[in-house]
Amino acid sequence: MPLALLALALVAFGIGTTEFVTMGLLPQIADGVGVSVPHAGNLVSAYALGVVVGAPLLTGIGARIPHKRLLLLLSGLFVIGNTASALAPSFGLLFAARVLSGLPHGALFGVGAVVASRLVAPDRAARAVSTMFLGLTVANIVGVPAGTALGQQLGWRYAYIAVAVIGVLAFVALSCLVPHQPRGPQSGVKHELRAMGNRQVALGLATAVIGFGGFFAVYSYLVPMLTHLTGISDSSTTLVLALFGVGMTLGTLVAGPLTDRALRPTLYVGLTLLAVALGAFYFAVNSTVPALVTLTLIAALSALITTPVQMLLMAKADKAPTMAAASNHSAFNLANAGGAWLGGLVISAGWGWASPTLVGAALALAGLGLAITGGIMDRGPRRSEVVISSPRDPEHQEARTRRAAPASTQGDSATS
Questions:
Q1: Where is the composition biased (Basic and acidic residues) (predicted)?
Q2: Structural domains of the chain, count
Q3: Could you give the 3-state DSSP secondary structure of residue 233?
Q4: What is the pLDDT of residue 395?
């Protein structure tokens, strides 16, 4: 794997850290800007709003900018947003800074996924993308706990300063390690939007919103489930969340090779097993060991289906995969909001703290139904082939096609 993938993984590490570290510092932030903890919780929504709006907006604005330059611009915006978060003197300005921090999130992942897929032979594209995603999962093991501890000990502003420093390091790594990738002659916002009109892209995004909504229905209420039902102390929940990150990392490691070998079957099996694991968690949550084992499986399976969804969208968007890949992360954040809302509804209705697991299982099954529908409708001869090489670089494209021809042929038949 090229060293450039490490730079992309570092970007993902910074994004994962800033996205989730706010949740662990809400009491400190609330005290620092003079609001209640529930009111400070709106900062999480502010970041999600930035992701949902920024992914298609910034990808469209940068549709003609070469990928490396666009990555550097987006990384710079990421640094500015987190620096502004650290310096914000009031809640209103902090809210705006968190929206700003979220704006480049989806575009960075979308452009990064396209760049990663073009760094390697076609039969290793999914492995390259999953390598980038490893930065996000490692953030849940290292970045978020470290940032939370830093913020609790020195003050919440230092956590955002640390994230900004990670952003600067990522900017330098991208500048030094990522090669130039020119845009094709058909690049532009109209071309990207036309690709978004593909019904398979729409089905893929719907699969992400519904299927991942099942995961977030449980993840949003994981801490109260563990404390109220499993009997885990508040001080131990950080370790459990780190274990959750380990599960996500394991799922990401196997997602790449499986997706390269058989894209749609990996997605089908992943969603099926996720629904089973979420349903099983309803019964396992009252016992410590079964709960932790099932929770690790849920984390691994949620990560397992991330890569095939990303690669499917890039394939179906044909030669304009960037906006589709970026919009996938808008879909994840919509899933976060929708899953948390539905999980909260059943808890408020008096069904108990474990009830979101059943909602999650139902949503995962609904996502599976959408994925299967897409597979049935998909009868194109290039249904699982992701565009890897730049159309302006025919010699490079021809060389990689020769290298990967047997594997690509086999991959296409496996994903039928």
A1: 392-401
A2: 1
A3: coil
A4: 35
